[in-house]
Specification:
single chain, mainly alpha, 2 domains, 21 helices, globular
């Protein structure tokens, strides 16, 4: 009964995140009456270039220390203290900015728009955790990421979610990544930054529903470990891909596994792969047919996903301010004379004609059409490979961390009785 309540609460949290990600007014109407007080900005003040490079150095040190503590030193306590530092520095002191997760959008926009200038420090924040993941696994998630660290610190009594539920929810980060790249590349919005559930906590300044969202994730994280990292974080997709090919990686045992099974329930993220048995070997013979069918259907999934994505381009493009405004003025031309509509009045004051606005909206909508094909094809490919992965046999003789899903937090190491 308790697990059912937790599942329901977890689903409610995800729905709350989806609600928070929609329906926000793009241009809130300001108040210019007597007594108006200019509000403080919700984004941090620009940081000096020298201090931005100092942040890069701190990130580099944190990644190096996390790699040493996880792979060489095998110290869970050291990783824990590093997590506290990351929350304090990158979270509360730096207000969650510059953020490696949000840097995805800067990179996407830089590729799509040659006129967009991305700072070198932002590029470093994007690349460094990926490079370290390729060599040492997801050590950025272990103790350098403030979003992951703040969730890791509140884990109290984690439960194991059903495997089918983890697989289904595991598709959400890929969808979120695709949408974030699409909206950034079209110059529509940086949705990762706008709907980051923990920024309001780090900056002590956010709208009420975003505060509720952040608190909900932390409360849920007491039982469903790292819900944002596992089922929403788009940057985690890139780190997972790199970590699967990492040259060195955290291991449960420092030497040969003695099959004591003490570590089977040590991972709150269900990221430990168990040894295979003879029954699994026999059952895999019947999976050959499934493998061939799933492999043949990969192009079908890609094309079907691309088609659905292209058909969604009209809906997706409405998030763009130009498209939104063009549709609004075409449907309600009388709003041109409405002094209370700040969106329309701002446009009228710009001196642009409606024809120019409509032309810009058509170009953007065409970009969404192409992006919709790419987004849908990407999601179709992810679904196809996920299905194919279910029938691939991998022989394992020891208890091993799953290189893609393991956050290198080090909890499992303390359960192993084998001496170094």
């Amino acid at each position: 009964m308790v697990k059912k309540l937790i599942y329901i609460s977890f689903t409610f949290t995800l729905l709350l995140f989806a609600w928070a990600s929609s329906g926000q007014q793009r241009f809130p109407k300001p108040e210019f009456e007597n007594g108006y007080v200019q509000p403080s900005p919700v984004t941090p003040e620009p940081r000096a270039a020298a201090m931005e490079f100092f942040d890069v150095i701190v990130l580099l040190v944190a990644l190096s220390l996390a790699s040493y503590l996880a792979v060489k030193k095998r110290s869970r306590q050291g990783i824990l203290w590093l997590s506290v530092f990351s929350v304090a520095y990158f979270g509360f002191y730096r207000n969650g900015c510059i953020c490696s997760i949000g840097a995805i959008q800067n990179v996407a926009l830089a590729f799509a728009d040659p006129a967009y200038a991305m700072s070198i420090t932002t590029l470093f924040f994007f690349l460094l955790p990926i490079i370290y993941s390729l060599f040492f696994g997801r050590v950025f998630c272990a103790g350098a990421c403030p979003l992951g660290a703040i969730q890791d610190l509140v884990i109290i009594n984690p439960i194991s979610l059903p495997r089918w539920l983890r697989k289904v929810l595991g598709l959400l980060p890929f969808i979120y990544l695709g949408l974030a790249v699409l909206y950034a590349a079209t110059g529509t919005d940086f949705i990762i930054c706008r709907y980051d559930p923990f920024i309001g906590i780090f900056r002590m300044d956010a709208e009420f529903h975003m505060v509720v969202l952040g608190i909900s994730f932390l409360l849920m994280g007491m039982f469903v470990a790292r819900p944002y990292c596992r089922f929403l974080c788009p940057y985690g997709v890139l780190l997972k891909w790199m970590s699967m090919f990492s040259k060195w990686h955290l291991s449960i045992t420092p030497s040969k596994c003695i099959q004591c099974k003490l570590c089977t329930n040590s991972c709150p993220f269900d990221a430990i792969d168990f040894p295979t048995n003879e029954k699994e070997v026999i059952s895999t013979k019947s999976n050959v047919r499934k493998f061939l069918i799933y492999a043949i259907l990969i192009p079908v999934w890609v094309v079907a996903g691309g088609f659905i994505g292209s058909k969604s381009h009209t809906f997706l493009s409405k998030a763009n301010p130009n498209v939104y405004l063009a549709e609004l003025l075409i449907a309600h031309p009388e709003l041109k004379n409405d002094p209370d509509n700040i969106d329309v009045q701002t446009f009228m004051a710009s001196g642009k004609s409606l024809e120019t606005l409509v032309g810009e909206a058509k170009v953007i909508r065409n970009e969404f059409y192409i992006g919709g094909w790419l987004l849908g094809g990407f999601i179709g490919l992810v679904i196809a490979l996920t299905l194919l992965n279910q029938v691939i046999y991998r022989k394992r003789e020891d208890y091993q961390p799953n290189r893609g899903d393991c956050y290198s937090c080090g909890r499992c190491m303390d359960y192993c009785p084998v001496d170094r």
